[in-house]
Amino acid sequence: MAAIAYVNGRYLPLHQASVNIEDRGYQFGDGIYEVLFAHRGRLIDAKLHLARLERSLAEVEIAAPMRASSLGAVISELLARNRAQTALIYIQITRGVARRDHAFPHPHVPPSLVITVRRKPLPPADLGAWGVGAITLPDERWARCDIKSTNLLPNVLAKEAARRAGAFEAILLDEQGLVREAASSTVWAVTAGGVLVTRPLDQHILPGCTRAALLELLGELNVRFEERALAQDELRQAREIFITSATSFVKPVLKLDGLPVGQARPGPVAEALYASYRARFGE
Q1: Which of 148, 159, 251, 255 is catalytic?
Q2: What pLDDT, in 10s, does the model give residues 145-195?
Q3: Is 251 a catalytic residue?
């Protein structure tokens, strides 16, 4: 069965789906996106993701192409047409099609909406099979990383640098050597003193939806937690490091810059958070 995409009101075979060459997403990266995970047809953390989508649109002044309820109906239909019950849903909204000019088009044009679905199984129950390596790099992205923009070239270059180093992810550091986030995920660490730390939200990091969901679970797990900046040296001495996102869930980092993290195996905090988060899937 051919994969089906939703493009500006039409359900099309993926190989036939296309957008206008003057779409501002193609010309300028003038758009935003969102990624959701569905398990057994149910969207995980849907309210968090749709709220972030709405916020990103507002920050860049793109009109929502449809109401949230209609968007949910389109996603459900797309899952059905792709016969995909456990999958990633990618939503991209751009400012629309207009003659190439940096300023917003006047009069305004309708925004473009593209949604695709890709099957993705649940990660393994054994986190030992889910661990990865990471490298550290200077953060070279723009100053509004709290917006989930399609301007991802610095992220692409960071992920490629990680791949060439034999790692999965790149952890990005600010000018003072403090951890911001990774190229496509939130960074957490359990310090040498046993405290779980992640950076507080600001304009330099994306407000991760999996991050928000895990913060709700911390009270149940009796984990010492601090929301603060983490220095590179503190990161290197951490007992545990893990990354989170809608695609990584809770993924332990077992090597950092080629050196083992802790005992080079998933730690108890990552395992506890992963088990609690996986329970949200009904597993």
Answers
A1: 148
A2: 999 999 999 999 999 999 999 999 999 999 999 999 999 999 999 999 999
A3: no
